[in-house]
Amino acid sequence: MAILRGLGTWSSQEGRPLQPIVEAVALRLTTADTVAASKWRSNAPIDDPAREEQVLASVAAQVRPMIDRQNTRILDQMREQQAVLTGTGCLPALLDAAGAVGQTLGPLHQATLARALVSLCDPVAP
After folding, report:
1. pTM for this structure?
2. At what angle do helices 90-102 and 19-30 cross, to 10 degrees?
3. Burial level of 16, CB count in 10 A (0-12/13-18/19+)?
4. Which of 2, 83, 108, 124 has minimal CB crowding within 10 Å?
């Protein structure tokens, strides 16, 4: 959870207009840790549809709103930064923000963040 607390400490005022998007994506990716840790501790198989349905039903009221907020934040930031995301400066701005946010993440999260950010510089629908 320390990773999650550290992600919201930068702002676009530091000259990184895409940093809020990168932070939101990183936060969304780190939620997978909780699921993985639970499966590891319980020795549950990775693919267990029946068990997944039980778990999802029991925690949906708590987890779903958090995921929805994170997804909404990502979409809001994409709309707000549409000019940057569709411009020629997108990749340098994205790399700069990812470098700043990535410092708080371990190697696995850095790799998943990079993979998740690959398509952000594509045109954004209005």
Report:
1. 0.63
2. 50
3. buried
4. 2
